Structures are given as structure tokens and as C-alpha cells.
């Protein structure tokens, strides 16, 4: 799979944030976008995933316009993990939170197959011991892994993460980046991370 950004531009209240951004990235690749705070990194990924509407340019997946797809179709292709803050709290167990990643594939209730996909991703991110713990009780690094597991449970082809290692100590930063690199390679995903470090 190829994700291509062509001449993407975005302005907010007459202030140009992005100007003619172009790049390509392929399955099996981890791409990190680096820049200072306020440089437009989060704006870029929100334009890519369709949260923000850009004034000029294209987001193409295998030569097809991504923006012409329905929200449900987009959710099956691309998953987004926003930046979490220290106040991030979900009043659900780890299992229930990860299972919510199946919503783009559902019409009614979760099947045993959906539950197995969630469990596989919980194991992949070494979260089994927290299966029935509440997300709010976990450390920042553990919460980040829960959100990555939920995103993977969507079975996307493209995984986009905004500041996945911010507010983590060095050990968790290195561990998280290693997990993401392995996911890109082993799952043949396009993984895009936004970093400022």
C-alpha cells in the first residue's frame, strides 16, 4: 500500500500552517515527523486522516482519493491515536477499551471473533496482566499501549500516532518506538508518528 500526500496546504484564520506538503510512504514503514511545538505536525496528520479539511492538495491511498471515502471506510483503513495527557482517563477496563476498536467493523454487537482480535492485540502490547484493570489506574506508558492496542484492533492499514512518547520516561519511550517499528514490519503497516524530541 502507498500513502501519498500531494501539495497539501492548510490555513487557519488566514494564517498558513501547511504549504505544499508532499511525501510518499509505503507499507512496512515507520515514518516519524519531527518538529518544534507549533510547527504544524498535528495539523498535518489531522488533514491526512480527514479530521481537518484542507484547502489544497490530495491524500491518496494506492492512487485513490482518501477523502472521497465514507467515515466507516476511512476507519477501516486508517487509525489515529491522539496525544494523551496526564489527565487522560477512561472509566472502562483495558479489555473493553481495546474492544471498542472493532466498532468500524460492527453493525450490532461484538462477536467472539472481535473479542479474540482485541485479546491478540492486548497480548501483542504486553497488557494481559491489566486485562480487567481500569485504564485510569494505569501509568502513562501503559495507557499509551492501551490506545495503540485499540487502534490495532480496528485492523487498519495505516496507523497514525500523535506524540506517542511524550510524557513517558526514557525506558517507555524506547520501548514504545520499538513496538511501533516492529508493528510496521510484522503487520506490514504504514506507521506515522509525530515527535518533537
UniProtKB/TrEMBL annotation:
Lineage: superkingdom: Bacteria
InterPro entries in the record: AAA+_ATPase (IPR003593), ABC_transporter-like_ATP-bd (IPR003439), ABC_transporter-like_CS (IPR017871), Metal_Ion_Import_ABC (IPR050153), P-loop_NTPase (IPR027417)
CDD domains: ABC_Iron-Siderophores_B12_Hemin
Ranges for domain ABC transporter: 3-196
Record-linked Pfam families: ABC_tran (PF00005)
Membrane spanning stretches: none
One GO molecular-function entry: ATP hydrolysis activity
SMART domains linked: AAA (SM00382)
EC number: 3.6.3.-
Keywords, ordered alphabetically: ATP-binding, Hydrolase, Nucleotide-binding, Transport
Family assignment from sequence similarity: Belongs to the ABC transporter superfamily.
PANTHER family per UniProt: METAL TRANSPORT SYSTEM ATP-BINDING PROTEIN TM_0124-RELATED, MOLYBDATE IMPORT ATP-BINDING PROTEIN MOLC
Protein name (Swiss-Prot/TrEMBL): Iron(III) ABC superfamily ATP binding cassette transporter, ABC protein
Native organism: Fusobacterium animalis ATCC 51191
UniProt lineage: Bacteria, Fusobacteriati, Fusobacteriota, Fusobacteriia, Fusobacteriales
